[in-house]
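Annotated sample (chain length 88).
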Amino acid sequence: MAKSSSAACVEPSFPVPRRLSGSEAVVIVIIICLGGVLVTVAGMSVPAVLQLLAGAGAVAALVVSMVTGAPQRGLRRVLGTLLSPPPA
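Output written by the structure step:
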């Protein structure tokens, strides 16, 4: 069966997001489980765990952008997020 073609006006102009690979999904599940363990076993409060995980994620984004050679605008945005005061 031949693949049907579509008109250019109905094709999306943005790239279609890809699905997570198995290893990416495992990392997300482990991070969620780690947050649950920190709340139940270590006795940390939920806001403290969220701040810890958000900080770790921001540092990871900074490291990945530096390793992959991301544009300076992206690096500036990540640094600005890391160094800005928390919302009131």
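Annotation: Residues 31 and 53 are 8 Å apart (CA to CA).
Annotation: Residues 46-88 form one domain.
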